[in-house]
Design goal:
The protein has about 210 residues and is of the alpha/beta class. Helices cover about 30% and strands about 25% of the residues. It has seven helices and eight strands, in the order E-H-E-H-E-H-E-E-H-E-H-E-H-H-E. The protein has helices spanning about 15-25, 45-50, 70-75, 100-105, 125-135, 160-165, 180-190, and strands spanning about 5-10, 30-35, 55-60, 85-90, 95, 110-120, 155-160, 195-205. Strands 3-2-1-4-7-6-8-5 form an eight-stranded mixed sheet, with helices on both faces. The longest helix is centred in the C-terminal third of the chain and has 13 residues, at about 180-190. The protein is globular and about 40 Å long. The N and C termini lie far apart (about 45 Å). The relative contact order is 0.20.
Length: about 210
């Protein structure tokens, strides 16, 4: 298996449907998908248990179906990863058909983390989204080496052994934000890879956040 695609989800079933539909259109079909459900109560579990895609697919749950946060939810996949590389996606993101090939262009250079780009469809009319799209790796040119603290997991791919050997995300960080940077730090300390901004590896989303 070339890629393991890890997706946490919490109460956003319709977006998850679109996310999975986009993965079914990927040009490279050498991948598996592992969806971690973080205590969703919106019918996500029923949908996943009847979902039958053309790719290898697993749905994972916390004991008792409780909510434990994004870090612990992504860690559900650690014991089942088969891919040489792991790609992290959020469940509201739709992958471009060439996403895996674009990440491979960077990962194939060895000792690299490929930090892809997120295309925000509503950036033009949403100030918060526009700010989000312009910060972090958005300040760098394509192909640039970026600091480890710009490791963000919506659309980032890395050798699976990096994630596995550092023990996954810190499950004690159970609120949004901070868990990506902390994992990036541990990967940086142990493996010292080149964190590479790879804007041609694209996903799209329409986040609802605003400044109001």
């Amino acid at each position: 298996m070339l890629f393991s695609i890890v997706i946490p989800t919490y109460n956003n079933l319709e977006e998850l449907r679109r996310c999975l539909a986009a993965l079914d259109r990927l040009e490279n079909q050498d991948f598996e998908v592992l969806v971690g459900v973080d205590g969703s109560t919106d019918g996500t579990r029923d949908f996943l248990e009847s979902y039958a895609p053309n790719f290898s697919f697993y749905h994972l749950y916390h004991p008792g179906g409780v909510n434990q946060g994004r870090s612990a939810t992504r860690n559900l996949a650690l014991a089942q990863l088969s891919g040489k590389y792991t790609l992290f996606l959020d469940s509201d993101m739709e992958a471009a058909p060439d996403l895996l090939a674009r990440h491979l262009e960077v990962l194939g250079q060895g000792d690299r983390v490929s930090v892809g780009s997120v295309q925000y469809r509503n950036a033009a009319d949403n100030l918060w989204v526009r700010y989000t799209s312009e910060r972090g790796v958005g300040k760098y040119a394509a192909g640039s080496a970026v600091p480890f603290h710009y490791f963000i997991t919506p659309n980032t791919a890395l050798p699976t052994r990096y994630w596995r050997e550092v023990g996954g995300f810190d499950a004690a960080i159970n609120r949004y934000g901070g868990e990506d940077m902390e994992l990036g730090y541990r990967i940086h300390q142990r493996f010292d890879p080149v964190f590479t901004y790879n804007p041609v590896a694209q996903v799209a989303t329409t986040p609802p956040m605003t400044l109001k």
